[in-house]
TrEMBL record:
Residues 1-23 form the signal peptide. InterPro entries: 26kDa_periplasmic_antigen, SIMPL/DUF541. GO terms for biological process: DNA damage response. It comes from Stenotrophomonas koreensis. This is Membrane protein. Keywords: Signal. The keyword Repeat does not apply. PANTHER family: PERIPLASMIC IMMUNOGENIC PROTEIN, SLR1258 PROTEIN. The keyword Signal applies.
Length: 241
């Protein structure tokens, strides 16, 4: 079995070894004695217009009394929840991510910290499926008492078709590279010995713009852009005459 010289970050191996991944893989197979083994990494990306947005909205309240801070927070959060319901956000798309109550300290030189009040917070994770109304939802949240809003991040709700497209593109790229090396060596690609996949989604896009005070009557402008998925394949080929 011949070894192919190292080039362009292509790893070489004398025999196929099992390749583990969280995705699918082909089991290693016996290699012919006259074979040259070539390992190639290829990646591809597929993009589409996002169809969902993820945001977090929270209510933070403070009061000298802990019970009052928590009660005020609950009342304010109830108004936020009602605003989400009025915006046609389904219950399955609203999830509490954290509730906290913590003391607020006053610090003075040469004095121990003194509790001067309490801060209560309640945060929701929200999925908005109608992106055309996302700006209205953000404005409604702020109007009804949400004083902490983060996001949105945009995503594809059903990304599997995009992953399938990226897989095929990455596999074609890997085969094209293998054919190039095989041709340069006067060989042919006999078969795939092993195949492993690693997929990931690039970081979500942040909120593009917020409403200005001078135009409070307008919805918060939103630009969704494109969301992408990426697939990387590690393919081991057997080359020969």
């Amino acid at each position: 079995m011949r070894l192919l010289p190292t080039a362009l970050s292509l790893a070489l191996m004398m025999a196929a070894t099992p390749v583990t991944s969280w995705a699918q893989s082909l089991a290693p197979v016996p290699i012919a004695a006259d074979a040259t083994v070539l390992s190639i990494s290829a990646s591809a990306q597929a993009s589409a217009t996002p169809d969902v947005a993820l945001i977090s909205a929270g209510v933070v309240t403070q009061h000298a009394d802990s019970n009052t801070a928590l009660r005020n927070n609950a009342e304010q959060m109830q108004r936020v929840m009602s605003a989400l319901k009025a915006a046609a956000i389904a219950e399955r798309d609203i999830q509490t991510s954290g509730i906290s109550l913590s003391p607020q300290y006053l610090y003075a030189e040469n004095q121990p910290p003194q509790i001067q009040g309490y801060q209560a917070s309640n945060t929701l994770n929200i999925k908005v499926r109608n992106l055309a109304r996302l700006g209205q939802v953000l404005d409604a949240l702020a109007a009804q008492g949400a004083n902490q809003i983060n996001g949105p991040s945009f995503a594809i709700d059903q990304p599997e078709p995009l992953y399938q497209q990226a897989r095929l593109d990455a596999l074609r790229q890997a085969r094209t590279q293998a054919d190039t090396y095989a041709s340069a060596l006067g060989l042919k690609v006999r078969r795939v010995i092993s195949l492993s996949e690693g997929s990931h989604t690039p970081a979500p896009m942040p909120l593009m713009a917020m409403r200005s005070a001078a135009k409070a009557e307008m919805d918060t402008p939103i630009a969704a852009g494109q969301s992408s998925v990426q697939v990387q394949l590690d393919v081991v080929y057997e080359l020969g005459n």
